[in-house]
Input
Amino acid sequence: MCGIIAHVGDKRALGPLVTGLEKLEYRGYDSAGVAVKNGNGLDVWKCSGQVSDLKDTIDTVESSATLGIGHTRWSTHGPPSDENAHPHTDQRNRVAVVHNGIIENYETIKDILTAEGYEFTSETDTEVIPNLIAYYLDRGNEPLAAFKHAIADLEGSYAIAVVVDGNDSIYAARQGSPLVLGVDDTGYYLASDVPAFLDYTDSVVYLQDGDTVEVRADGVDIVDGNDEYVQREIEQVDWQPDETGKGQYEHFMLKEIHTQPTSLQKTIEGRLDIGGERTNLDIDMDLTSIDNVQLVGCGTSYHAALFGASLLNRCDVSARAIRASEYDLNTGTPPEDTLFVAVTQSGETADTLGALRQAKEAGVSTLAVTNVVQSTAAREADEPLYIRAGPEIGVAATKTFSSQTVMLTMLSQHLARVNDEATRVDNIDQLLSDLQDLPGAVDGILQSSNASRLAEKYLDMNAYFFIGRGLGCSVAKEGALKFKEITYEHAEGFASGELKHGPLALVTDQTPVFAICADDCEKTVTNAKEAQTRGAPIVAISPSDHRIVDTADEHLSVPDMHPVCSNLLANVQLQLLSYYCATELDRAIDKPRNLAKSVTVE
Ligand code: F6R
Output
C-alpha cells in the first residue's frame, strides 16, 4: 500500500531513491516519483505506471543532489495518473511530500486551505500535507516547526517524508504505517521496509508510532509521541542483499517458490526436538489455561489460519480461523481463556491489526505469527513468533504460506503439550521427523513436478475448481486464491463435500477440478468422480499409490508423508501450476493488476 523512501548523505540521492523504489514496488505500482533538493529549488519527476517508467524519464538526468524522497503508489484517493502521483508539492514548489497511509480529515483541511487561497491539483488526500506545511511556513514558522504543526493537524495513518526547499533536512513522521531508518557511514535512509536500503546498509532503527524525525547528512533527531528526544537502538537485520533480488529467476514468485527448502529450514531451525517428541517454541507466556484459540488473518494468511485451526481441533484444542476483516462482526467478546493469534506475513495488514487491537482491548493473550521483525503486529502482540522466511517480494504469497503453516503446526503441538486435556496429533513422532524432512521433500517436488505441462494442457478453460477436506480444504482455498490472483482466471476452492451442494451446477468439460487427496480423503475421491461424471477433467494431487490416481485424468504427485507435510507439498504443486499458467498467459506475475502486497487500509 504505497512505499516511501528518502535518503540524505554523501552520495547522489537519485541512485538510492530509485533502487529503493524498485525494492518497494511490491507495495504498489500505480505510479512512481522522486523529488530531490537541488541548488535552486526542488526537482520533481513523477508519472503514472511503474518505477521502470519513472526511470525512463530520469535516465538522462545528471542531478548531484544528495537529499531526496521517493514514492511508489497503490491508489486509494484518485485513480492512477500523473497528477495523483507522489511526491506532492505546494503550489510554489517549496515543500514536497511522500506519504503512505490515509489522511482521514483531508477534506476539512482542504476546505480550510482552499478558503485561504491554497490551490490543489490532485484528487489525493496527501496533497493537503505540503500545503499545510506551506501554510505554517507562510506564517513565519521555521521548517521543523511548520512540519510539526502540520503533523499535529493530521488525523489518520501515515508514514511521511518531507523535503523543504533551501533546507538540508528530511522531516519524517510515523503514525500507524511502517517507517524504518537505515544508518550507514555515508548517510541515512528512511523507508517503508528494510529491503529498500538493504543494498547499502543492514543497520536499522525501527521507528515507533508517534515518532517524528529530522534527518541530516550528519545526524538524526528522533522525538517521540510525548515530545521527548529519544535514542532508539540500532539493530542489525540478518537479511542478505541478494535475498531482495531475483537472482537467476525470471520472477520473484518463482524464486520464492524455489527457495522454500531454505526458508522452511529456517522456520524449523532449533524448534524441533524429535527424540523428546516436542517443539521448542520460545514463548514467554503462560498458556496452560488456554482452551480456546482464535487464528485471525486475511487472504493467504487466513488460509494458513484455517490449516492451523484444523490441526488444533484434531488435538482437541478448540480453535477457529476468522477472517480479520469480519472479526468485529463474528466474535463477540472472546472468553478470558482465549489465545488470539494474528497470522500476518507483513505484520502491517490493517484488518488484522484492527482485530488484534480489539482482542487486546478484550484482555486476552495475543501472539503474532509474522515474517517481518518489529512489524506492527510483532510489536503490538504480547509475543511475536517469527516465521523467518526472509523477504518475500512477489505480491503472491508462497514461501510465507508454507512457513506460516509449519509455524502453526509447531504451535499446535506446543499448545497441546502445555494443555493437559489436549491430545497430541496422531503420530507426533512421524510429524516431527517428517517436518524435518519437509525442506528436502519440497526440493523433490521442485525437481520433478509436471505442473508446467498441466498448465499448458488446461489453459483456456472456463473456470478452475480446487477441492479438499480438512487440511486439504485450506490448501484448496489457497490454491484457488493463488491461481486467480496471478492468472486472472476464475478459480474457486472449497470443501470437497460442498461441490454437490451448488457448485456442481458450474461443472462442465471446461472446468478442471483439482482434487487434493493428501490426507483422509475417501470422500474426496467420490466427490471428484461426481464432477468427472459431469465431464470435468480431474487432476489428483496425491501420493502416487493413492486410488484416486486410477480415476483421475492427470496427476500431480506428492510423497506419502504425515498429512501436514503431504498437504503442504500439494500446495507447492499448486503454486507451480498457478505460476506456469500465468507465464503462459503472459501475466504480470510479481505485480498482479489492482493488488499490492501489504494492505494497510481497511
Ligand atoms: C495472496 C496474498 C494476500 C495476503 C493478505 C494478508 O497471495 O498475499 O492475500 O496474504 O493480504 O497479508 P499479510 O499476511 O501480510 O497480513
Summary: Residues 563-584 form the longest helix (22 residues). Residues 507 and 533 are 10 Å apart (CA to CA).
